[in-house]
Amino acid sequence: MSISNATVFIIDDDADFRESVQWLLESTAYKIESYASAQEFLDAYDQRPGCMLLDVRMPEINGLALQQIMQDRDIRLPVIILTGHGDVPMAVTAMKNGALDFLEKPFDDDVLLKLVDRAMEEAQQRFSEQNEERELRELHDTLSRREREVMDLVVTGNSNREIAETLGISPKTVEVHRSRVMGKMRAESLAHLVQMHNRLSL
Fold first, then answer.
1. Tens digits of per-residue pLDDT, 89-107?
2. Which residues, including other chains, have CB under 8 Å from residue 150's CB and lie 6 or more apart?
3. Residue ranges in the chain modelled with pLDDT below 70
4. N- or C-end of the chain: fewer Cβ atoms within 10 A?
5. What backbone phi and psi angles, to 5 degrees, belong to 97?
6. For the chain, first and last CA: distance in Å?
7. Which pTM was predicted?
């Protein structure tokens, strides 16, 4: 993820507030996009990397509900919650649900800028991890049904003979499938294959 491609998404139903935050963030190298509602953001979002400044108290879909939708859709943008004084309990709940931090309105501009920089560093890591997982899934999709069965048994510590007995095939055939699995998954070792299997949550 390059800085030029990273976007700060501002989600807040207060137009004046969105405009003031956007003006502040225009001093950074990041792209800025603002939305008046969670639904507007969801309709427009196209998997670009970045972070989110999210108001918790909004009509229709509030910040907590948007967080849940993002989790369901595997949208991994780091979230900074922006909240009024009375919304602090909601902000704490948002933190428990994975938000990076929260700021009470009104807040210090420098504090927000530093938080956005930290969120973008986190976004870099999440974006890289998501790309790696996508590549792993694509590799896994190239395996035949039998190769997937062999992979599942290999990573749980079964020997070729045990796998052969479980699947009703010869140890030699298991060895062939095992070799193909290692090649297709680009696994450097059995330990590497186990790590891949864990990351795929199979």
1. 888 888 888 899 999 888 9
2. 163, 167, 174, 177, 178, 181
3. 1-4, 202
4. C
5. -85, 5
6. 27
7. 0.72
| Of residues 107, 114, 9, the one with CA closest to residue 51 | 9
Residue type present at position 51:
C
Residue type for position 127? F
Tokens for 117, please give them.
């920089």
Which of 88, 103, 105 is CA-nearest to residue 17?
105
Tell me, what amino acid is at 69?
I
The crossing angle, in degrees rounded to 10, of helices 171-185 and 190-199 is 70
Task: Give the pair of three-digit tokens for residue 75.
Answer: 């949208």
DSSP string, 49-110: -EEEEEES--SSS-HHHHHHHHHHTT----EEEEE-GGGHHHHHHHHHTT-SEEEESS--HH
Residue in the structure block whose two tokens are 């140890």: 171
Q: List strands edge to edge, sheet with 101-104.
A: 31-35, 7-11, 50-55, 79-83, 101-104
